[in-house]
């Protein structure tokens, strides 16, 4: 994936063009915080905003886009169906609720947030939304190869996007290769490892070499690996910093050095045991 500016896109399997760099709004508070973050991103040139029903900020996302002065069709908006809403009818209802909160007529991309026991049934509903023209592209999050094969072997439409946790300490190259062979675009969430990656000594050394910040190095590395990415921030200066990654290129040798940091370390749950992970989190909240 060779892109030279923030307007760069990749073509999905159905021909839809999707921006390679976007803004994630996980944990951005609904209202002024998420609205201001999106306005800052759009002013810099971002044209992809990634939200989800679980983030509870879809209303603010919709307001930010409507008040931006930029035509709706020029902004690529993603949302996701949450675990509690999976299942055929529940998914259809959840989608309508997301559109209602966003005050949109359609979504650009709709994803299954996590593969629960109902994910194949949920995918059937998402296929229907796509066929009905309610969403331009469809995909999944937090899936391993066996989840993807499950959809591929039982459905008519292969996911167009797989959004997974991805950063220098969790590369999963075999899964990226699988997506490449099946014309599925790979997208990173938590590309900066929720800030933890910024303290990595090897990356700090490379950032100094290229006269860039660690976050810029990691985002550039992602894009050079053909992985779309959605770093999240609500701070205007960080949003700008994360966009300044198109005036340099990481050498093949240094790309390998960053790849070598892979330790399979996750900040979120593993897709195969996430139900237990979330159950434990809910228990700890009580």
Describe what is shown at a glance:
The chain is an alpha/beta fold. The protein has helices at residues 32-44, 58-66, 88-102, 119-131, 145-154, 173-181, 201-210, 214-224, 236-243, 252-259, 274-285, and strands at residues 9-11, 17-19, 23-24, 48-50, 76-81, 107-112, 135-141, 161-165, 185-189, 228-229. β3, α1 and β4 (48-50) form a beta-alpha-beta unit.
Q: Largest sheet, order of strands side by side?
A: 3-4-5-6-7-8-9-10
What's the alpha carbon Rg, rounded to whole Å?
A: 18 Å
Structural class: alpha/beta
Order of helices and strands: EEEHEHEHEHEHEHEHHEHHH
* CATH fold annotation: TIM Barrel
Low-confidence stretches are: none
Number of strands: 10
- The total tally of domains equals 1
Largest sheet: 8 strands, parallel
The fraction of residues assigned to DSSP E strands is 5-15%
CATH architecture: Alpha-Beta Barrel
Using the alpha-carbon principal axes, give the shape: globular
Oligomer: single chain
CATH class: Alpha Beta
Helix content: 40-55%
């Amino acid at each position: 994936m060779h892109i030279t500016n923030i307007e760069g896109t990749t073509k999905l399997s159905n021909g839809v063009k999707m921006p390679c760099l976007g803004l994630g709004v996980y944990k951005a508070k609904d209202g002024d915080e998420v609205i201001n973050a999106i306005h800052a991103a759009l002013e810099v040139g971002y044209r992809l905003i990634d939200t989800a029903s679980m983030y509870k900020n879809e209303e603010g996302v919709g307001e930010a886009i409507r008040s931006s002065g930029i035509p709706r069709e020029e902004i690529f908006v993603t949302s996701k169906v949450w675990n509690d809403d999976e299942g055929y009818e529940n998914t259809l209802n959840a989608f309508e609720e997301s559109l209602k909160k966003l005050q949109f007529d359609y979504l650009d991309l709709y994803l299954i947030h996590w593969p629960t026991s109902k994910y194949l049934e949920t995918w059937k509903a998402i296929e229907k939304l796509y066929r009905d023209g309610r969403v331009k592209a469809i995909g999944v999050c937090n899936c391993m190869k066996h989840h993807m094969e499950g959809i591929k072997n039982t459905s008519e439409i292969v996911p167009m996007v797989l959004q997974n946790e991805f950063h220098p300490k969790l590369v999963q190259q075999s899964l990226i290769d699988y997506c490449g062979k099946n014309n599925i675009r790979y997208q990173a969430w938590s590309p900066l490892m929720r800030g933890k990656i910024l303290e990595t000594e090897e990356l700090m050394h490379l950032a100094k070499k290229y006269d860039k910040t660690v976050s810029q190095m990691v985002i550039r590395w992602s894009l050079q690996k053909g992985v779309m990415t959605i770093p999240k921030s609500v701070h205007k200066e960080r949003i700008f910093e994360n966009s300044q990654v198109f005036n340099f290129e990481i050498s093949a040798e240094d790309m390998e050095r960053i790849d070598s940091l892979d330790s399979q370390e996750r900040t979120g749950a593993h897709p195969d045991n996430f139900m237990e992970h979330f159950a434990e989190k809910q228990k700890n909240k009580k």
